């Protein structure tokens, strides 16, 4: 016989580090950036609607082609042009899977470049959230003209809080 259902007040509050939605999606963008294939830039982008992740992207080479990390950057006018930027890759990933982006929010590790800003606007992104800036970008001007909200938030902690030992029903693989 099991015990009667009961309320266990293990802790009165969630941990202080429990992220709000914006922080959560920015952290996901930071995580996506870990997949970047170019040493000149690590950027991540997460496209979200109704707190639901529609698509993710990082700056990376075209599918099936060599990475900058393996063959070196392809530099034109002091920019590496081998990769698609994170925002473009997130949009392309959505297109591949038939995912409409109108009304979505873009969480990006940095201010989009001019080209990515225009693409985000054209696919219907209505809000862009960033935690760092980018050089030589007309993004702000284009966002303003198109009525896209731009929110600059504090960079979230890069730490991931997961303490396997504190969860009574979870066991590491190496434990008997
Ligand atoms: Zn590169
Ligand atoms: Zn870009």
Report a brief summary of the structure:
The protein is α/β, with parallel strands linked by helices and 176 residues long. Helix content is 26%, strand content 19%.
Helix-strand category: alpha/beta
Strand percentage, roughly? 15-25%
How many H/I helical runs? Answer: 5
Distance between the termini: 27 Å
Sheet of most strands: 5 strands, mixed
Helix content: 25-40%
In round numbers, the mean pLDDT is 93
* Number of DSSP strand runs: 9
Q: Could you give the order of strands across the largest sheet?
A: 2-1-7-8-9
List SSEs in N-to-C order: HEEEHEEEHEHEHE
Q: What is the radius of gyration?
A: 20 Å
Shape: globular
Bound molecules: zinc ion
Identify low-pLDDT runs.
none
Structure description:
With about 180 residues, the chain is an alpha/beta fold. Helices cover about 25% and strands about 20% of the residues. It has a five-stranded mixed β-sheet with strand order 2-1-7-8-9, with helices on both faces. Helix 5 links the parallel strand 8 and strand 9. Helix 4 packs parallel to helix 5. The longest helix is centred in the N-terminal third of the chain and has 13 residues. The chain is globular and about 70 Å long. The two termini are about 25 Å apart. The model has no long low-confidence stretch (mean pLDDT about 95). Bound molecules: zinc ion (2 copies). The site of one zinc ion (ZN) has 7 residues, from loops.
Strand-helix topology:
Layout: H1 21-33, E1 44-49, E2 52-58, E3 60-61, H2 68-71, E4 75-76, E5 79-80, E6 83-84, H3 86-96, E7 105-108, H4 114-122, E8 127-130, H5 139-146, E9 149-152
Parallel strand pairs: 7-8, 8-9
Antiparallel strand pairs: 1-2, 1-7, 3-6, 4-5
One zinc ion binds at residues 85, 87, 112-113, 115-116.
């Amino acid at each position: 016989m099991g015990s009667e259902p009961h309320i266990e007040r293990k802790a009165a509050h969630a941990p202080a580090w429990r992220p709000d939605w914006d922080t959560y999606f920015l952290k996901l963008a930071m995580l996506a950036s870990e997949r970047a294939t170019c040493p000149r830039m690590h950027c991540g982008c997460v496209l979200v609607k109704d707190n639901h992740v529609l698509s993710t992207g990082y700056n990376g080479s075209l599918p099936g082609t060599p990475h900058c990390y393996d063959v070196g950057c392809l530099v034109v006018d002091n920019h590496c042009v081998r990769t698609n930027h994170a925002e473009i890759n997130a949009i392309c990933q959505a297109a591949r899977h038939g995912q409409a982006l109108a009304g979505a929010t873009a969480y990006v590790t940095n201010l989009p470049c001019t080209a990515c800003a225009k693409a985000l606007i054209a696919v219907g992104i209505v809000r862009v959230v960033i935690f760092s800036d980018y050089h030589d970008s007309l993004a702000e001007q284009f966002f303003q003209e198109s009525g896209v909200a731009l929110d600059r938030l504090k960079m979230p902690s890069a730490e991931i809080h997961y303490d396997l030992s504190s969860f009574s029903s979870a066991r590491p693989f190496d434990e008997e």
